[in-house]
Design goal:
InterPro entries: AbiEii (IPR014942). This protein is an alpha+beta fold. It has nine helices and six strands; from the N terminus they run βααβββββααααααα. Helix content is 43%, strand content 16%. The strands form two sheets. Strands 1-4-3-2 form a four-stranded mixed β-sheet, with helices on one face. Strand 5 and strand 6 (117-122) form a beta hairpin. Helix 5 crosses helix 9. The radius of gyration is 20 Å and the shape is globular. It starts with 10 loop residues before the first strand and ends in a 14-residue tail after the last helix. Residues 1-8 have low confidence and may be disordered.
Length: 253
């Protein structure tokens, strides 16, 4: 995708290996706090001239009641002093959403070169798979399954899939098969079921109305293009015998 389409959301997942090695949530929070503090302090001090100084790192557990399956992890808040605005008080903090661990495939993470630095980030394949999983998880069947009421349909995910398909046409079979594998792992991690295109089309009239009423979406992708893009991807996966996918909740047969 073009750099103008890059996502700069400050979201992350705890790695499964870390969660297994450090199962205690208080210890996880301490380790994360130390890592955030060290990384941000070192980065700020290496700047020339130095503009930022770390004031405080705060990590809070999200209560399990926030998610019926207990899949919340941590809210991270980083408070910085900006010497360019030294006289300004109460500058907004930087907030990170660190989510509970998920299973990742071989195509999930890759080096990303950004402004002369190398970081490890989710690949476009993983992003595509997660967006399709996230859209399914906002529909009534899944919300009823995990007893999570009230979420709006995640129509932004449809927009994003259309943009990804523009950049990586369906003829790029390896890309979309890798995305399928990441989708399946993402569904497994959150116990999301999928019968194919029928699952995505649940209450499609509400999806269309929500998409067309969402003023935050750019106007360059119509609902018809977004929906047809999703159908294109899912029908390719259906042709490979991917569906149905069923993941009962823990304790259920």
């Amino acid at each position: 995708m073009a750099s103008s389409d890059a996502s700069y959301d400050l979201d992350a997942n705890i790695l499964l290996a870390f969660a297994v090695k450090t199962p205690d949530r208080d210890e996880q929070a301490k380790v994360l706090c130390d890592l955030f503090t060290e990384a941000i302090s070192e980065h700020a001090s290496r700047q020339d001239p130095v503009r930022y100084e770390l004031v405080k790192t705060t990590i809070k557990h999200r209560p399990k009641s926030d998610h019926p399956m207990g899949w919340n992890a941590f809210d991270v808040k980083v408070q910085l002093k900006d010497y360019k605005f030294a006289d300004v008080r109460n500058l907004p903090s930087i907030e990170f959403d660190v989510a509970a661990p998920e299973k990742l495939g071989d195509a999930a993470i890759a080096p990303l070169h950004l402004d002369g630095h190398e970081v490890f980030a989710y690949t476009l394949e993983r992003i595509a798979g997660e967006k399709l999983r996230a859209f399914l998880s906002s529909l009534p069947t899944y919300r009823a399954k995990v007893k999570k009421p009230g979420d709006a349909v995640r129509v932004k995910d449809l927009y994003d899939i259309a943009k990804i398909l523009r950049a990586r046409p369906i003829d790029d079979r390896k890309f979309w098969w890798d995305a399928c594998e990441e989708f399946l792992l993402a569904c497994e991690s959150r116990h999301v079921d999928c019968a194919g295109i029928a699952s995505f089309a649940e209450e499609i009239a509400i999806t269309r109305a929500s998409y067309e009423a969402d003023t935050t979406l750019p106007s360059d992708v119509s609902f018809e293009e977004a929906w047809n893009s999703l159908k294109c991807v899912i029908e390719y996966w259906e042709s490979k015998g991917t569906f149905p996918v069923e993941h009962p909740l823990p304790g259920n047969s």
